[in-house]
Design a protein that fits this description.
single chain; alpha+beta; Elongation Factor Tu (Ef-tu), domain 3; OB fold (Dihydrolipoamide Acetyltransferase, E2P); 4 domains; 6 helices
Length: about 425
Amino acid sequence: MQTCRITVSILLAVSFLTVACQSKSEAQKVNAGPPPSLVAVQTVNTEDVPIYNEYAAQTYARDLVEVRGRVDGYIEKRLFQVGSDVKAGQVLYVLDLRPYEADVARAKGELSQSEANLEFAKRQVSLAQAEADLAQAQANNVKATQDVNRLKPLVKEDAAAQQDLDNAIAAQDANQANVNAKKANVEQNRLSTRAQIDTAQAQLESRKASLRTSELNLEYATITAPVSGRIGDSLIQVGGLVSRNSAQPLTTIVPLDPIWVRFKVSESEYLTYQRREDRDQTRLLPLQMILADGTEHPYPGHIQNTVNQVDPKTGTLELQATFGNPQHNILPGQFGRIRLRINERKGVLLVPQRSVQDIQGTQSVMTVGPDNKVLARTVATGERVGERWIITQGLKPGDRVIVEGLQKARPGALVNPQPYKERPAPPERTGN
């Protein structure tokens, strides 16, 4: 019995000792306080960074072409797929060619007839006959003149009768009159022949023009793409009537390489741009285009021109630029952002945007000192560079800025700093 009492006493003593140790340990934990909060910090260093401005932008079809029919006719064939890329000169539509082929054949026949008429006019025999008659009359006149000249001395010497001389003189006068008449006849025939040749020549040229018109109409009955680009929907289907005077085009073609982009800058930015010493070099600065899904278009762009007035409602000026688009994956009407490099800052300090707190217009960051205690710093920010701010005042190289864990950081609190690791960008979403 007594042994049992001793055993119980020992057990009670051990229990009291255990409770006392546990109480002491808990008291030590309470006095030690909670462990330092875990925070992610980034050490600030100087960097050289380019400065960009971004502007809302939209692509557009500057050189859109409407495909229209130049002749009337019914469509027999459509030789393109809607939304496909076509080349300049590629056949798009074929109209009913038979009426225009018949016109060409008729015009060729009329041209052959005109050529024959011209050849006949050039070979007129009436002019040749008139010239032959004139030559005969001139020969007769020469003989009559010789007779008169031979008889005159003979009559003076009474070797020939006066009557013979009178007859010779009369014959000379008659032959001279005949020569004059033949000359007039030759001139008349010459004028008539020239008029016939000119008429036949003019008719020949007219027939040639008529044939060319018929050939052109036959060519126009096969409608080809005037430019290369992406073709739209066909507004008139096979079997439909094409009219040259129709207000509705057959389809449209949009050149896609390069693609045109318009964006607007403020009036002050435009004035700054105008004051630059070398505006031609500024025009050649490469532009970047950020698409609606956040990806960057792989081909740079350049400013081409500006519109001629500032919008008085918004105080902005529209700039127009072109971007290479060889894959034709950028279409007119798409929205995005234009990124324009305007400057380069050297030796600046940058911190992640998420580390900067803005309270009632005052910007500040939390830093970790050498003793791992939190310090609040008032800062001044400059331009934004991607997801970071340029810090112009309040920090120096080597400062450790808290990026994650700000909700646990309080000025003067002890923290456990760990290097900040940027998280990879989330994967692009697909589908709806």
